[in-house]
């Protein structure tokens, strides 16, 4: 059961970590694209 | 003669096959999968055919080279990626956490399955049903618990078709009328460049965090890049249509053919179906509850119903959310908002499966 609990905790943390990093990347991507398009159209 | 070799178990499986074929054809429950699965069950339970004879059988070859070699599920994801629009998710990035929230149900069910005596790989294969993602369920079952492949696939696809029945009671139990009536602020428009760059960025990020998710994630994002780039319409078209349809045929037939009487007529199968239903319900609940938790910190509140769309039965869950939301407020149009967590849920389920694989293999 201990192993199951470790997998349970790691699983939830792993999914949230992955999504958190993706969230950050999405915001960064949106920011970079917004800046790049602003520079193109003064 | 084959007739003399028929056993009662085989006859029972013919009835099971008949039920699935009826559901697929007459009731249109996920017919693209349940029809070939049902037929696969039927032919796998005909005696002396040799269709599933290891090394020689026709359907065994589809199963071995398609599933055991882990080819078909990633190719299905190529097609899914080419069909997916990440726009609603990109427009409001915070919604991806609802896709993560719904995966809590996967792990809760995993834990319950383990408590009930299943082995860790079996419990993981049962838990992933809650992700409501057929190819991921099949991929994980093939890797961790091949003897459960048929049962878990049938459970997953059956419950996906039953989402309009399973989800609404859970959603209504966990939300108030006022919460269900929340109108969300309109999302921004997503530029084309962002849509093109997203699959590349998402591949880098998710595979670096959970490398075991690579086979499915890479193909999913490649398919999406085909679609969004706009320069490989033939490849995008083939991935969405011809390729997807071809591998779906082999997938369904192979999965169904693994369900012979000996593997299906076990007490464990009842647990799989009960736990699969539990997985769907708990994933719905965890998505809704996580949305309510997010609202504690958000200035522009989200309608907590969209948390249920983190259960990645695309687009059925999103439609159900819209339906329940419009019952509370006729002017509310939640469909596009719900598509965000719906698609994020696909990514979440791939990550959840990746974590299982990295810890159990």
Automatic annotation (TrEMBL), chain B:
Please cite one Gene Ontology biological process associated with this protein: sodium ion transport
The molecular function GO annotations come to: lyase activity
**Which keywords does this Swiss-Prot/TrEMBL entry list?**
Cell membrane, Ion transport, Membrane, Sodium, Sodium transport, Translocase, Transmembrane, Transmembrane helix, Transport
Q: Please give the chief subcellular localization of this protein.
A: membrane
Subcellular location field: Cell membrane
- Classify the protein's membrane topology as the record does: Multi-pass membrane protein
* Cellular component per GO, a single term: plasma membrane
Q: Where are the transmembrane segments?
A: 6-25, 32-50, 62-83, 95-116, 156-175, 196-223, 243-262, 269-290, 333-360
Cross-referenced InterPro entries: OadB_MmdB (IPR005661)
Taken from the record, one Pfam family name reads: OAD_beta
Top-level taxon: Bacteria
Cross-referenced NCBIfam families = Na_pump_decarbB
Protein name from the UniProt record: Sodium ion-translocating decarboxylase subunit beta
Q: Which organism is it from?
A: Desulfacinum infernum
């Amino acid at each position: 059961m201990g192993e199951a609990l470790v997998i349970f905790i790691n699983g939830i943390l792993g999914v949230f970590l992955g999504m958190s990093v993706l969230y950050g990347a999405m915001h960064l991507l949106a920011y970079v694209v917004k800046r790049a398009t602003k520079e193109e159209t003064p | 003669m084959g007739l003399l070799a028929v056993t009662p178990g085989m006859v029972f499986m013919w009835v099971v096959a008949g039920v699935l074929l009826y559901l697929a054809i007459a009731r249109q429950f996920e017919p693209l999968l349940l029809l070939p699965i049902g037929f696969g069950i039927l032919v796998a339970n005909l005696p002396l055919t040799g269709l599933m004879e290891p090394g020689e059988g026709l359907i065994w070859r589809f199963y071995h080279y398609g599933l055991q070699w882990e080819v078909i599920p990633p190719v299905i994801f190529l097609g899914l990626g080419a069909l997916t629009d990440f726009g609603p998710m990109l427009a409001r990035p915070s919604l991806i956490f609802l896709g993560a929230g719904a995966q809590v149900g996967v792990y809760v069910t995993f834990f319950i399955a383990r408590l009930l005596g299943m082995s860790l790989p079996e419990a993981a294969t049962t838990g992933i049903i809650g992700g409501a993602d057929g190819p991921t369920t099949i991929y994980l079952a093939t890797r961790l618990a091949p003897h459960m492949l048929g049962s878990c696939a049938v459970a997953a696809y059956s419950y996906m078709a039953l989402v309009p029945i399973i989800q609404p009671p859970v959603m209504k139990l966990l939300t108030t009328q006022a919460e269900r009536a929340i109108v969300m602020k309109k999302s921004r428009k997503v530029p084309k460049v962002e849509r093109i760059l997203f699959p590349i960025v998402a591949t880098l990020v998710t595979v670096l965090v959970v490398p075991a998710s690579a086979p499915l994630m890479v193909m999913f994002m490649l398919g999406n890049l085909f679609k969004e780039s706009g320069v490989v319409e033939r490849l995008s078209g083939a991935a969405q249509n011809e390729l997807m349809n071809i591998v779906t045929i082999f997938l369904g037939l192979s999965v169904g053919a693994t369900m012979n009487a000996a593997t299906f007529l076990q007490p464990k199968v009842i647990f799989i179906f009960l736990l699969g239903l539990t997985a769907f319900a708990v994933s719905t609940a965890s998505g809704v509850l996580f949305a309510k938790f997010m609202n504690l910190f958000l200035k522009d509140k989200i309608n907590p119903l969209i948390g249920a769309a983190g259960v990645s039965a695309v687009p059925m869950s999103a439609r159900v959310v819209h339906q329940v939301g419009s019952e509370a407020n006729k002017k509310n149009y939640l469909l596009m908002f719900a598509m965000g967590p719906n698609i994020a849920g696909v990514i979440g389920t791939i990550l959840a499966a990746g974590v299982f694989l990295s810890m159990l293999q």
